DNA sequence: TGTTGTCTATCTATCGATAGGTAGACGCTT
DNA sequence: AAGCGTCTACCTATCGATAGATAGACAACA
């Protein structure tokens, strides 16, 4: 799943294959099929784990006394700068119209829970949408322009 | 190129094929190769045309007396709601790390010219980054959640 | 002994790309 | 006007590579 996550975050859904992630971890593609019968199931499982971990990380930031928006911003920043990759749900969501229901619903879950969490913390619904959009978009921009510092610059106005 | 643009906006770079777009327009894949020798060249050409058209559309909005940010917002809105698809450069940019230099540079061009245009109009560089990121992110969010109205809600704060 | 996990081997379908050929439109020269 | 080359835009056929997926054998372990 680690290998799959990395590949998906770099290439999107249609860009990764069983053979590649099998090679990454040193097994054969048939062995990956043993654990995840289809590509959809694998992607859905990876997306679910990613979302759960992401929200946990936000909670951890909040526990450290961070402001809610700054907490989200910090977790996105780490995802971009430590991993050097896009947000998994951003990478999948960009081709959302081409995903199967199962995978698409997991990606949806990331955004829906994100909006929930931000509104629970007191933000208006439109503000929650704006924060999530800006963070996801800044990550994309920084990635395209190959300059991680652009994430901070593009999200400075949120703080 | 129309067919290719639509496919790329729905499925990203690795998700579209010569055969598919050939079938879309009623020819064979070899005929597409005649006009575009490689997949990279085709994607790069489509991205360049998309960027040029996009910037022209912004200029057209500006000529109508629209505020610069509102002009950009309006063009993004049309791209989302009329076409019902992601921004081409957003769809390609999400898997930016996996694109060839040629295609990647065309996607970069979209963002660089966008930032240029916004700063020329008087915005601070960080503000320009923020606007572009928020628009691109709001488009992604609206697409994933299958609700075009979320674009307006998520970008209301820009106006 | 039964379960779990991985293997080898193979299937069908599709990928991007190329080779070689053809029909028709156009311009130039005789 | 007739003939000749050239160009465009497609075609059929095929290439090697790779995709996702499956069946069945084998080894380790409880």
Q: What does this entry look like structurally?
A:
The structure is a homodimer of 159-residue chains. The first copy, chain A, contains nine helices and no strands. With 159 residues, the first copy, chain A, is mainly α. Chain A has one domain (40-158): Tetracycline Repressor, domain 2 (Orthogonal Bundle), CATH 1.10.357. The longest helix of chain A has 25 residues, at 39-63. The radius of gyration of chain A is 16 Å and the shape is globular. The mean pLDDT of chain A is 96. Chains A and B meet through helix 6, helix 7, helix 8 and helix 9 of A and helix 6, helix 7, helix 8 and helix 9 of B.
| Relative helix content of chain A | over 70%
CATH architecture of chain A: Orthogonal Bundle
End-to-end separation of chain A:
34 Å
DSSP strand count of chain A: 0
Question: What is the count of DSSP helices of chain A, taking H or I runs of 4+ residues?
Answer: 9
Strand content of chain A: under 5%
User: Rounded to an integer, what's the Rg of chain A over CA atoms?
Assistant: 16 Å
Task: Furnish the topology, listing elements before pairings.
2 copies of one chain form a homodimer.
Chain A: H1 2-11, H2 18-25, H3 29-35, H4 39-63, H5 68-81, H6 88-93, H7 101-120, H8 125-144, H9 149-155
Helix pairs in contact in A: 1-4, 2-3, 4-5, 4-7, 5-8, 7-8, 8-9
The first copy, chain A, binds a DNA duplex (30 and 30 nucleotides) through residues 17-19, 27-31, 33-35, 37-39.
Which descriptors apply to this entry?
homodimer, 159 residues, mainly alpha, Tetracycline Repressor, domain 2, 74% helix, 0% strand, globular, DNA-binding
């Amino acid at each position: 799943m680690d290998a799959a996550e990395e590949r998906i975050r770099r290439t999107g859904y249609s860009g990764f294959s069983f053979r590649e992630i099998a090679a990454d971890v040193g097994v054969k593609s048939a062995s990956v099929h043993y654990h995840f019968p289809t590509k959809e199931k694998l992607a859905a499982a990876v997306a679910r784990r990613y979302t759960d971990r992401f929200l946990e990380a936000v909670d951890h930031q909040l526990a450290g006394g961070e402001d809610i928006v700054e907490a989200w911003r910090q977790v996105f920043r780490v995802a971009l700068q430590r991993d050097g990759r896009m947000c998994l749900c951003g990478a999948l969501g960009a081709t959302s119209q081409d995903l199967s229901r199962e995978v698409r619903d997991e990606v949806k879950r990331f955004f829906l829970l994100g909006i929930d969490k931000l509104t629970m913390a007191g933000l208006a619904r439109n503000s929650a949408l704006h924060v999530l959009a800006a963070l996801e978009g800044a990550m994309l921009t920084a990635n395209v322009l190959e300059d991680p510092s652009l994430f901070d610059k593009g999200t400075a106005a949120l703080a």
